[in-house]
Amino acid sequence: MASKKMILDLDTGIDDAMAIAYALAAPDVDLIGIISTYGNVLTPDAGINSLKILELLGHTDIPVFLGDEHSQTTDHFEVMPISAQIHGKNGIGEVDLPTPQRKLEEQSGIDFLIEAAHQYNSDLILVPTGPLTNLAAAIRKDPEITDLIGKVTLMGGALTVPGNVSPVAEANINQDPHAANEVFTRQKNLTMVGLDVTLRTLLTKKETQQWRDLGTNAGRKFADIVDYYIDVYKITSPHLGGCALHDPLAVGVALDPSLVQTLALNMFVDTTDAMWGRTIGDPARLTDPEPNVNVAINVDADRYLQRFMEYLTNLFSK
């Protein structure tokens, strides 16, 4: 058993599925649970998708919990049409995976996170790759966890590049900027893995063919799921030449910060109408000598991709 423990907080779409695979394959961490959130799909569907992916990969020992179903400033959530286009209506590229044998946990994901923070302290790594609603709710319920959790590495935000849902906002932050602002201004040891670096780490059908060639069910299914994603990127972002490894990059950086160059910065999230969801330096804390956020602004994409392929190919070959 590794000393480091990881919790993923996912709105399980295609890149979230790759994040699960990376966390399972990484030799230096134990994935101890997955919390579901909304975004690419509804929260309950994200939970079911996580169970399906875990079953496909032979890891039915990892519990999956439900988190909140909408932002703290709304009373419901509807999947954006662009999300359904990018990830498929079922969230996993319209690939049909069997109904999970297991059920979702009855305990709330927020309570699970609080318990884990107290149990594992500095050995706990949290990787949220959707809106930050669940972490903000946990902080409100038990403010002590901001000091307890060893590391929070999130996929979201954009500092040096434009957003992807507005000129300033990235999709995950845009779903619940108020929650994101609570996290950015209160959580210790926060690393932001945003569009600044995720759009530079790309996967092509050359790589998914390597999974297909393994001849395993997991390799074929993941190739089918990710090929759907790559095909959508050809329409939405033809200039990239592949699909971005948004969520799995956050898992990679959580385990090996040397993959990215970072800028230490106290940040906040703008919730005004004009700048809704913008992740930027916090004017109120600019002179604070110890910034709580490290923003990834450059990435060793080749080294990351090599490790990503090594980890996932080994996992799918079993």
Can you tell me about this structure?
The protein has 318 residues and is of the alpha/beta class. The protein has one domain: Inosine-uridine Nucleoside N-ribohydrolase, Chain A, CATH 3.90.245.10. Helix content is 41%, strand content 17%. It is built from 13 helices and twelve strands. It has helices at 14-25, 43-56, 81-87, 109-120, 133-141, 145-148, 171-175, 177-186, 195-198, 205-212, 217-236, 246-255, 301-316; strands at 5-10, 30-36, 64-66, 124-128, 151-155, 190-193, 202-203, 243-244, 260-265, 267-269, 279-281, 293-299. The strands form three sheets. An eight-stranded mixed β-sheet has the order 3-2-1-4-5-6-12-9, sandwiched between helices. It has a two-stranded antiparallel ribbon with strand order 7-8. Helix 1 (14-25) links the parallel strand 1 (5-10) and strand 2. The protein is globular, with a radius of gyration of 18 Å. The model has no long low-confidence stretch (mean pLDDT 97).
Quick rundown:
Residues 6-305 form the Inosine/uridine-preferring nucleoside hydrolase domain. This protein has 318 residues and is an alpha/beta fold. It is built from 13 helices and twelve strands.
C-alpha Rg (nearest Å): 18 Å
Biggest sheet descriptor:
8 strands, mixed
> Which bin fits the share of residues in helices?
40-55%
The strand line-up of the biggest sheet is 3-2-1-4-5-6-12-9
What characteristic shape results from the CA principal axes? globular
> What structural class do helix, strand and pairing data support?
alpha/beta
Q: Would you report the number of β strands? A: 12
Instruction: State the distance separating the first and last CA atoms.
Output: 20 Å
Q: In DSSP terms, counting alpha (H) and pi (I) runs of 4 or more, how many helices?
A: 13
Portion of residues in beta strands equals: 15-25%
Keywords: Glycosidase, Hydrolase
Domain Inosine/uridine-preferring nucleoside hydrolase: 6-305
Enzyme class: hydrolase
Pfam families: IU_nuc_hydro
